[in-house]
Design a protein that fits this description.
By secondary structure, the protein is an all-alpha fold. The chain has 21 helices and four strands. It folds into two domains: about 375 residues, Amino acid/polyamine transporter I, CATH 1.20.1740; about 120 residues, no CATH class. The N terminus is likely disordered. Belongs to the amino acid-polyamine-organocation (APC) superfamily. Cationic amino acid transporter (CAT) (TC 2.A.3.3) family. GO terms for molecular function: amino acid transmembrane transporter activity.
Length: about 600
């Protein structure tokens, strides 16, 4: 059968369904190890989020956008990221299985959309890990006295005829991290915790030492004639749009959901702790840096170490550089960790060859998927300078954030009412495997081989779901129209105003319809844990924020992503649909829970 759309949704109370049978995992029913707790999740989340960007971003954004108001921009960016984190937290409680945004989209939206999200995430983590790895060698050069003094296995090699130098250091580090991840999730999260702790100590040094210098010298950076917001509110908002990507990484926590001992409790706390700690550290570091040096005098390449150098602390450069190296290594571990689990989830659903879903009995991790993704990232890091492809990482992340927000609306207002059931012999009711949610009375009222005769209440419930689904689609359409009008300033004024009006009316009217319909009672209280607050307003705000960021990524990025997505669509059409675990399924209506 073709890729499922809205009717092909899965039972929200059966997250382990959807092609996740033990027989399909290729490992003889072996599951991932449930060993992670809140400290492990916080280490993974913070390590994945705080990359070396903080050691560069503070200078660039302060000079070009915010001035001394950099701290406020970090706060706005953190709050914007929290919108997506709250959506992730609810879905990870409802569906605690590997796959993160792919898994949620598969259950709540449909297989075809989930495939595209999973395919985009594969690209995101591959390029993200490779770009992080290539940044380690230049930072190590300081400790050896320059690039030309690095050992041969760490130095970048310039080959005649190639524009990009080869980077054996990056490839070696990726392979080492891959080997670490193959040892087991508990071992890799322990190492991640040690590295992240050391990085946090470096950032605390910057905060404490910088604060001491600031109080001693009068915080000269805040005494400029242009005030706290030299570029106005617009500068702060544009700066927060750039800084938003400094908070990407908390979604790595959601990808480990299947390996958490108590996912309903620990996953929301792990994500919340990750964002809170990262936002605090970002704001404190930025407050110190822009306070020590006037923002126009900040070095955009080495903002922190150059700020200390102006006060005679040249030795602090080594401390800051060590923090950058630690941040890159922690980010590399967090970048490679989720990808094998997403591939494993896709293979469980039949969209990729089943060998990728195999879980090693001893280490209880998908070793083959881990080796494959690590090898691809190592080759890419060795051969290519992927900095020009960095925008493609953002597309995968923002698409995932958007579909997660849409999934929250779906599961609250229009949860699936049909469940795919295996059919051994087409046309015989006995071939439908039973669903644990329906009663004997349902079984006695078979109207046809594929479902029970609907009652009046079930017909009314189905109509309500269809109305809610139409409203959710219109919300997405309204957001696209509204953000497009705001983003493309080259459009004539009357066109912009018309599009803004149409998009705004669609958003407002569809939101009101959802409020009038009310949330589906069968979906409330089934998470066993965290529930996203302020639904539908919070997910809608999340959709708008992510759509705005997507619209402003640039045409070259979208062209590259379109080629990748087109290749993924071909794979899905010629392999995924044929081997999908939903192929040959009949859809059986489930009774309200």
């Amino acid at each position: 059968m073709g890729g499922p759309s809205w009717p092909d949704l899965q039972c929200p109370g059966a997250a382990e369904a959807g092609g996740r049978a033990d027989a399909a995992d290729g490992g003889g029913g072996q599951r991932l190890a449930k060993t992670l707790t809140i400290p492990h999740l916080a280490a993974i989340g913070v390590g994945s989020t705080i990359g070396a960007g903080i050691y560069v971003l503070v200078g660039t954004v302060a000079r070009e956008h915010t001035g001394p108001g950099l701290t406020v921009s970090f706060l706005i960016a953190g709050v914007s990221a929290a919108l997506s984190a709250l959506c992730y937290a609810e879905l990870s409680c409802r569906f605690p299985s590997a796959g993160s945004a792919y898994h949620y989209s598969y259950i709540c939206i449909g297989e075809s959309v989930a495939w595209l999200i999973g395919w985009a995430l594969i690209l995101e983590y591959t390029i993200g890990g490779s770009s992080v790895a290539r940044g380690i060698s230049p930072n190590l050069a300081l400790f050896f006295g320059g690039q030309d003094k690095l050992p041969f296995f760490l130095a970048q090699v310039h080959v005649k005829g190639l524009d990009t130098p080869l980077d054996p250091c990056a490839a070696i580090l990726v392979l080492i991290v891959t080997a670490l991840l193959c040892l087991g999730i508990k071992e890799s999260s322990f190492v991640e915790g040690i590295i992240t702790t050391a990085n946090i100590i470096v950032m605390l040094f910057v905060i404490c030492a910088g604060g001491w210098l600031g109080f001693r010298n009068g915080w000269v950076g805040y005494k400029g004639p242009e005030g706290y917001f030299p570029n106005g509110v617009g500068g702060v908002i544009s700066g927060s749009a750039t800084l938003f990507f400094a908070f990407i990484g908390f979604d790595t926590v959601a990808s480990t959901a299947e390996e958490v001992k108590n996912p309903q409790r620990d996953l929301p706390l792990g994500m919340g702790l990750t964002l809170t700690l990262c936002c605090f550290l970002y704001m404190m570091v930025s407050a110190v840096v822009v306070g020590l040096v006037p923002y126009r005098a900040i070095d955009p390449n080495t903002p922190i170490s150059s700020a200390f150098a102006q006060y005679g602390m040249q030795w602090a450069e080594y401390v800051v550089s060590s923090g950058a190296v630690l941040a890159l290594i922690a980010s590399l571990i967090g970048g490679i960790l989720p990808q094998p689990r997403i591939i494993m989830a896709m293979a469980r659903d039949g969209l990729l060859p089943p060998l990728f879903s195999a879980v090693n009995r001893q280490t209880q991790v998908p070793i083959l998927s881990t080796i494959l993704t690590g090898t691809c990232a190592a080759i890419l890091a060795f051969l290519m300078d992927v900095s020009q492809l960095a925008g493609m990482v953002s597309v995968g992340t923002l698409l995932a954030f958007t579909t997660v927000a849409v999934s929250v609306l779906v599961v609250r207002y229009a949860p699936p009412y049909e469940m795919p059931m295996e059919v051994a012999l087409a046309g015989t009711p006995e071939t439908l495997t039973s669903c644990s949610g329906h009663s004997e009375q349902d079984e006695q009222n078979l109207e046809d081989p594929f479902g029970n005769a609907p009652t009046v209440s079930e017909i009314a419930s189905k109509a309500r779901r269809q109305k809610a689904m139409r409203s959710i689609v219109l919300i997405c359409l309204g957001a696209i129209i509204f953000i497009s009008a705001v983003s493309f300033s080259s459009l004539p004024f009357y066109v912009q105003m018309t599009a803004c009006t149409i998009g705004g009316l669609l958003l407002l009217s569809s939101s009101i319809v959802l409020l009038c319909i009310g949330q589906d009672k069968s979906s409330l209280g089934q998470t066993g844990g965290f529930m996203c607050p302020l639904v539908p307003f919070l997910p809608i705000c999340c959709i708008i924020v992510n759509a705005y960021l997507l619209m402003n990524l640039g045409s070259h990025t979208w062209i590259r992503v379109s080629i990748w997505m087109a290749a993924g669509a071909l794979i899905y059409l010629f392999y995924g649909i044929k081997h999908s675990s939903l192929a040959g399924m009949a859809y059986h209506r489930i009774s309200p829970m």
